[in-house]
Amino acid sequence: MNLDKDKSVQIDIHSLPCFTHCQAACLQLKALTWSPSRHKTLLKPISLTVQSGDFVAVVGPNGAGKTSLLRCLYRVNKPSSGEVLIDGENIWSLTARHCAQRIATVLQDSSAEFALTVFEMVEIGLIPRSTGWKRTIPDTQAINSVLTLLDVTHLTHRNFNSLSGGERQRVMIARALVQEPDILILDEPTNHLDIRHQLEVLALLSSLPCTVIVSLHDLSLAAAYADRVLVLKKGEMQHYSPK
Predict the structure, then answer these.
(1) Considering the domain boundaries, does residue 129 fall inside one?
(2) How many domains does the chain divide into?
(3) Residue 242: how many CB atoms within 10 A of its CB?
(4) How would residue 14 be classed by pLDDT, with cut points 50, 70 and 90?
């Protein structure tokens, strides 16, 4: 199968109501390390710059440190040393709310039980930028637009718990998009997706107006869609360059 980027995919992202606040940010890592304990280092010093609007794929075998690195970027793992800067500002100097306004995440595991409909799950993404409890017409328009983008409009009223793994994954991506992040971080977003939806999701991610960082197992997909590829092995950066 030819995995070159599908030039026929035309998505007028900038015309959608769910991307009015996106301002792609620069992310910089300065000698970043992370250790879960004093005697075990999982990430060795990593220094790199993700330019505003870049789509960066993080690749490597299981145990390479991909998830550990991403957790440092969205402020779950605090670096043992070094810094993570967003537009020159240390992310640990931001409030949790401010960080959530700028960085959205899609994790591998969405298996927690939620007694919510798909629409309500996506609506959660509005919370960081919300100024009140009442849903507005623009809120509804934004939710509907991302449901359409991820091809899950037909699931709007379904219970999230009743969905397949691939359907859940697309709903969680929709929730992150409605958050209107400056940086979107995704950990193995193509897990559970069939090949058609893998290609559609990656084509969508490559067209977004925000900075995108995504971990992938498939190097061919990374090479086809990413602007830059970061290769990790045993917690060390092996390569970081344009595809």
Answers:
(1) yes
(2) 1
(3) 8
(4) low
